[in-house]
Every structure is written in C-alpha cells, then in structure tokens.
Design a protein that fits this description.
By secondary structure, the chain is mainly β. The chain has one domain (37-343): 6 Propeller (Neuraminidase), CATH 2.120.10.30. The chain has helices at residues 2-29, 115-127; strands spanning 33-38, 45-51, 57-63, 71-76, 83-84, 92-97, 103-108, 143-148, 154-156, 164-169, 175-180, 187-192, 199-202, 207-213, 219-225, 233-238, 244-246, 253-260, 266-273, 284-292, 297-304, 312-317, 323-328, 337-343. This is Translocation protein TolB.
C-alpha cells in the first residue's frame, strides 16, 4: 500500500510539473506568437517549409509513406492537402517558390546511376528497425531544378560534379544563391535565374550553406562551420562577395537556418546551447536585430521566441511578415512537422 501511495504521489507530481511547464511555455511564447497550430499531417515527417509569394500556399519536404527519402510537396493553407511535385524518387531537398509563384526551385538526385541500390539499402535499414538520422547528404548527383506548376516541365539548372542545393531566389527573381561542392568543400555561389553566369561569392574552409537574400537583395545571410567542428555560426556577405561579417561567435552554440523578416530589420534563426553537452541542448528560435549600413552589418539585440522542450527549427516569415512557420517535434507522437503561428512582432 505504501508503495502504491508513493507511486500515485509521484505520478501526480510529474503530471503537475508537466502541466506547469506547458503553461509556462505557452505564456512565454505568447509574447510574440498566437494561434499556434500544426499544418502538416498524414506524412511520417515533414519540414523546411516556405511560403508562396501570396502567402496562401506552402512548399516543404516530407517523407512519403513507404519511401525512404524526402520528396517535395505543396499545400494550400486552407485545404491542407499535400500534393507531391518532385520526381518521386531519389533524395530531394530545399524547395523554394519562384518570385512569380508559377514554379518551384528544388534540388534532386533522382538521376543517380545507383539509385535502385541506394533505395534498397535505405529500405533494408528500415526493415531491420533502423532509422536514418537527419543529416545533410552531400550527394554528388544532387542538382538544382525548376518545376513549372502548369506544364509540369522540369528544367535542370546545374550539372556540375558535386552537390548543388540549398538554393533560393533574389526578390527580383534575377538571381539564385546556392551551396555547391564543385570546387571541394561546400561554398556559396550565385547564378542567373536560368542557370548561367555562375560565380563564387564565399570561398572558405568548412561548410557554408543555407543562404538567403536580404529583402533589398544587397546581402546574403548564411550559416558556416569554419572550424569544421559542427558548431555552426551565422554570417552575412554582400552579393558581390567583398564584405563579410560574422553575426554569432559562441563556440558553445550551434546557430543555423537564418531567415530575414520582410522589413529587413531583423532575422530569425535556430540556436542550441551545447555548453552542458548534447544531452542538455535543445533547439529554439531566436531573433536578432540588425544594424545595417552601406558597407557593414552588425548584430544587435537577441530575443528568444520559442520555449518548448522539443526542437523548434527552420523558421521562416510569410511575405507580409504576419505569419511565422517552422519545423517542430512538439507533436503528440514526437514526429517533426510544420507549425504555423501569427507573428505579433518583437516585444517593445
């Protein structure tokens, strides 16, 4: 009987603690977010979503039921029915709408000559009870494509030996910034929207990736692992590659997935503190005010946005700046899915 009483007391205490933590999380996040809701369902895992230019549709990558690699889906935010737009085979990633909203940009390795073997190996792993952990696959057959919504035509923009991915458009639609391993390690490049005129803008040791143009198309923000220690930091570089500035510089934190607010006044990104080791680290969303002049960008005030015990990553703003979408494992089953909230702006 004593053991039963102790068990009941502990159970009640744990439940109370959990409820208190959930309530505290809600209160903290309510400072900047409202109407938080899950927007992807029916797929095992989904994430890295982006808005269409009119803000009514999203594109994202997700695992299809029964297939081991991400594919690209679009979904109307009202109907919320996913529609696959990628080839259906091979690794695909990093989708982004063209500025006119008529096509999609994404990277795919569906032309890999050993695709059947790669698929079989992944399926065998799953059948044995294993699971591929999320990681970057620098597939040398990964190239950048544009898919037209109406014609369904798939146009290949890159064809170099090496990984070409993590691409996004300038706001005027004239340029594409992307990550490539064509000259060795992953660096940043810019090309014209038709795939011509490729030029390198960042050439440093270690990984440089996840680039996005600033709202005025004068700067590019990205993540980098200059020390090759997997502790990513944030940088910004001018579109001509002449001016580069580091925005985060904490060796105990991982900083990635930076994205501009449409105002250009601040960014939002994902951060985790590893000072207490991997077990004590959790990914949350933060904003950083920017002090921008003609030839420089300086880091300003940092504000924490999410406080959930589960991971919150890959945040993006809607084109009008009124919505925030991100990938989170705060789902009931712990799977990564896309979440959406009304953005109330930064606290005064």
């Amino acid at each position: 009987m004593a053991r039963l009483c102790v068990t009941l007391v502990l159970s009640c205490f744990i439940s109370f603690t959990s409820l208190f933590a959930d309530d505290e999380t809600t209160q903290q996040e309510a400072k900047t977010l409202s109407n938080i809701q899950q927007v992807t369902m029916g797929l095992p895992r989904a994430g890295e979503g982006y808005f269409s230019p009119d803000g009514k549709t999203i594109v994202y990558q997700a695992y299809p039921v029964g297939y081991p690699f991400y594919q690209i889906y679009v979904q109307n935010l009202d109907e919320r029915v996913p529609m696959r737009v990628s080839p259906g085979r091979g690794r695909t990633t990093c989708a982004y709408f063209t500025p006119d909203g008529k096509s999609l940009l994404f990277s795919s390795a569906h032309t890999h000559p050993e695709l059947a073997k790669i698929e079989k190996d992944a399926r065998d792993l799953a059948a044995a009870g294993g699971r591929r952990r999320y990681q970057w696959d620098f597939d040398e057959y990964m190239d950048i494509y544009v898919s037209n919504f109406n014609s369904k035509e798939l146009t290949q923009l890159t064809n170099s030996k090496g990984y070409d991915a993590e691409a996004s458009y300038s706001h005027d639609g004239k340029q594409i910034v992307f990550t490539s391993t064509r000259d060795g390690d992953p660096d940043l490049y810019i090309m014209n929207s038709d795939g011509t005129g490729v030029r390198q803008i960042v050439n440093q040791d270690g990984y440089d990736g996840g680039p996005f143009f600033s709202p005025d198309d004068k700067w590019i923000i990205f993540r980098s692992d200059r020390e090759n220690e997997h502790m990513l930091q944030l940088y910004v570089v001018s579109v001509d590659g002449k001016h580069e500035f580091q925005l985060t510089n904490d060796p105990n934190t991982v900083n990635w997935a930076p994205y501009y607010h449409p105002s250009g006044e601040y960014i939002i990104w994902t951060r985790a503190d590893y000072s207490r080791g991997p077990a004590g680290a959790n990914f949350d969303l933060y904003t950083m005010n920017l002090d921008v002049s003609k030839d420089s960008v300086k880091a300003g005030k940092v504000t924490r946005i999410t406080f959930h015990e589960k991971a919150d990553v890959l945040p993006v703003f809607s084109p009008d700046g009124k919505k925030l979408m991100w990938t989170s494992s705060r789902t009931k089953d712990g799977s990564s899915q896309l979440w959406l909230a009304d953005w109330k702006g930064l606290p005064k």
